[in-house]
Write a structure and sequence with these properties.
Blueprint (H helix, E strand, L loop, with lengths): L3 H18 L2 H6 L1 E6 L23 H14 E15 L5 E14 L5 E15 L2 E7 L12
Parallel strand pairs: 1-5
Antiparallel strand pairs: 2-3, 3-4, 4-5
Length: 148
């Protein structure tokens, strides 16, 4: 069995492959039954007081249908993921992963695009010996760091 950090990285890689393949079932397989996914309302909206829980608590059937709708309506032109950090809790029962994502979706029957670009914080919980994604917020962009 790999160490916890390596296991979290394997889950991140698995999720990236599922997005690339348009596999909604594989994405929901990663989710904890109590998963929350706050939507930020935009990549520069860093104020969590304005975020929403439009999707509500995890519902496998509903979330699968929502993602399948995306896959049916859009083609993924590129999907670049880079892990920024993985941090484990002192007890080894929770993890925080920060991922830099750049995914470009193009509408199949139109000119629309969705460009997902920014950092996602992904919270994982160890439940019954299995790691599950329990929280993620939408992608946020940050201005470049200035001089120290």
């Amino acid at each position: 069995m790999p160490d916890a950090s390596s296991h979290i990285q394997s889950l991140l890689d698995r999720e990236a492959r599922a997005w690339q393949a348009g596999d909604a079932e594989a994405i929901v397989d990663l989710c904890h039954p109590d998963m929350l996914w706050p939507l930020t309302g935009g990549p520069m909206n860093h104020d969590p007081a304005t975020w929403s829980l439009a999707w509500g608590r995890f519902d496998r059937q509903r979330w699968t249908a929502l993602w399948q709708g995306l896959f049916d309506g859009f083609t993924l032109e590129h999907n670049r993921w880079s892990t920024v950090k993985i941090e484990l809790s002192a007890k080894g029962d929770a993890a925080l992963a920060v991922v830099d994502i750049d995914a470009l979706w193009r509408e199949r029957d139109g000119d629309g695009v969705q460009h997902w670009k920014g950092l996602a914080a992904k919270g994982y919980s160890l439940c019954g010996g299995e790691w599950k994604l329990i929280l993620q917020h939408g992608l946020l962009e940050y201005p470049p760091a200035g001089p120290a």
